[in-house]
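Take a specimen:
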Amino acid sequence: MNYLSTLQVANLIKVTETTVKRWADEGEIRCHKTLGGHRKFVMKDIIRFAEEHAYPLAGAIAAPLSKRQAEILEFAVETRNYSKIAALFYEEALQGDRSGVYELLSYLCGHHISLATLGDEVIKAAMIKIGEEWQSGKLEINREHLASNAVIEALILLGPELHRKPSNGLSAVCACAEGDHHQIGLLILARALEAEGWRMRYLGANTPFATLRSFVKSARPDLICVSSTVIEKKKQLLEGLQSIGAAAHSYGATHLVGGFLLGDHAPGEFHCDYISASVHDAMAFIRDRFQLKPGPKRQRQEYAL
């Protein structure tokens, strides 16, 4: 019989060796110990454990990045040190390599860090730092664009491999307000909704209000999420969001608005049901609004959709 080491099991489930050892010592995973005290595992036991706990077996993969970065990443993931993970994500995003960003996101999701947490505590911090460096002149605009596009493309690539709950029978539309091209937070929310069993229609950046309004009226989704990070034409934005809210409420749908600069406004100003400042915040409101089974309680974080 062929046995697996703790390292091989960790690579299969995409967790750290420390986690595998703890599971084995607590009896979560059946293991055999050698005379020297080494833990050995049988593949069928690993498969059974993964199926029972909804862990995807992704094959033996090593942490991305350099050896130094990989060591930092493994420790940061084990201790849930999101500031260290954000610093590594910043380094990877600056390279503008969507494959590298995708591999890092896949690795983090494989270690059961939720998309909401990745968005609120990792991606947000990295992208804010990149934006600040561009505004201060430390970073050229082409590098900021490359970083943003690499993150967007990586999130798109990540979609098919996410573990999804069974369909909840609900549908959602996500779109950035007309004139707004900042879609990373919105895309994370869309992916998080998909993982929760929602049918998603993602319209993306710079969606004309007339187009969105027409789509809402024809598709009649249960939830409409509109993101506005930059406010240049306030009157146009206000009227546009109000028109989407009116269309949503005409048949009983929920209208959710999010963005950095909207926190000082009341939902009534936009004819919306809620103004969210983070992915966690949005998901908590949505679960409560639609009476969906809540997930683990987390602290509220500020983040723009």
Notes: The beta strands are 32-33, 39-40, 171-176, 199-204, 223-227, 254-258, 274-276. Residues 115-135 form the longest helix (21 residues). Residues 6-52 form one domain. The longest strand covers residues 171-176.
